[in-house]
Amino acid sequence: GVFMYNHLQQKVRNAEALAQKYKQQQEALSAQLQVVYEHRSRLERSLQKERGEHKKTKEDFLVYKLEAQEALNKEKQDSMNRYGALSSQHKILKNQHEDVKKQLLDLQLQHNSLKLEHRKTLETHSQKYSQLQQEKDSEVTNLQDTVFKLREESKLLRKAHQEVHSQLLNAQ
C-alpha cells in the first residue's frame, strides 16, 4: 500500500510538473505573439511614412504601393499562419492539460479504491489470525488434558502391573 501510495504521489508530482511546463510554454507563446503584433504595427507605421515620402511621382508611388501591399499581405499571411499555429498548439496543450487532469482524478480514485481494499484485506487477515489463534489455544488445552489423562492412566496401569507382578511372585 505504501509503495502504491508513493508511486501515485510520484505520478501526481510528475503531472504537476508537466502542467507547470505547459503553463510556461503558453506564457512564452503569448510573449512571442505580442512581439509579432508590435512588429506588424511598426511595419504599418513604416509604410505610412514611405507613402508620404513617395508622393512626388505617381508612377513611383503606384509601383511602391504595389510592392508594399504585397509585402504587407505576405507579412499578414505569415502572421496569421503563425497565429493559427500558436492557436492550434494552445488548443493541443489545453487538451493535454485536461487529459492530465482526468488521469490524475482516475489515479486518485484508483488510489482510494486500493486503500479501501487494503483495509478490508487487513481486517479479514486480522479476523482469520484471531480465529486461528483461538483454535490453536483450544487445541493446546485439549492436548494438555489428554496428556494429563494419559499420565494418570499410565500410573494406574503401572500400579496394576506392579500388583499383578507381586501376586505372581507370591504365587511362585
From TrEMBL:
Organism, scientific name? Sagittarius serpentarius (Secretary bird)
Which ranges of the sequence are coiled-coil?
5-60, 90-135
The answer, when asked if DNA repair is one of the entry's keywords, is: no
Q: Is Transit peptide included in the keywords of this UniProt record?
A: no
Q: PANTHER family, per this entry?
A: GOLGI INTEGRAL MEMBRANE PROTEIN 4, GOLGI INTEGRAL MEMBRANE PROTEIN 4-LIKE
Q: Which InterPro entries match?
A: GOLIM4
Record's keyword terms, sorted: Coiled coil
Q: Per its UniProt entry, which superkingdom is the organism in?
A: Eukaryota
Question: What gene makes this protein?
Answer: Golim4_1
Listed GO cellular component terms? Golgi membrane
What is the name of this protein? GOLI4 protein
